[in-house]
Design goal:
Elements lengths: L2 H6 L15 H6 L4 H27 L1 H7 L3 H23 L1 H7 L10 H9 L6 H31 L1 E5 L2 E4 L1 H7 L10 H35 L1
Length: 224
Amino acid sequence: MTVKDNFFKGFIKENPLLVSVLGLCPALAVTTKIENAIGMGFAVLFVLVLSNLLVSLVTFRPKLRELVMPVRIPVYIVLIASLVVIVEMLMKAFLPELFQSLGLFIPLIVVNCIIFGRAEAYAGDHKPGESVIDGAGMAIGFTLAIILISLIREVLGAGQITIWKSAVLDLSFLFDFLGIEPIAMFMKPEGAFITLGFILAAVAAIQNRVNAKKNAKKAEGGAK
């Protein structure tokens, strides 16, 4: 796998949320604003990239690997938890409003299936550089996915887009033009489930169409 493929696979092909369906808790809970999605995305990016690097470093050399692998689960948890504490402290110090908004879901990154899954499935068996690229791609793919969910929910539910703090794009004029009001349900948990369901359905439909075209080309090639 090339460096480019390793990085971009997390965007669409192996997107941790839209394909692997991991990290559902933050995807459903914090996506009421794009601001929240961006904050959570950067937190996951920091933890995932560094955890992949550290896991790869402690399992890369054969002798160290022999010591770590029998107890790798608690080792991974300690490494990830330490990084999450750093993120929590930095966010609490420099972005207190965002920290309050994200609340419990920052420390819950410790048990996020995306973080632990990449450590177990990839970083533990690959070189540090490859693991960093994998972590960055997966984290950015996750961030783009939750930004998409936030965009849909906030536009339909509140009639606005909160990019960051006071940078708010008011779309009330669009609703006034259409003669309708924002659907408050999209700002509630059920709105998150509905939004994610439609996005997953769209992704599955696109994948099925792409696979059908590939199979058709293979069939044509075989016939020739």
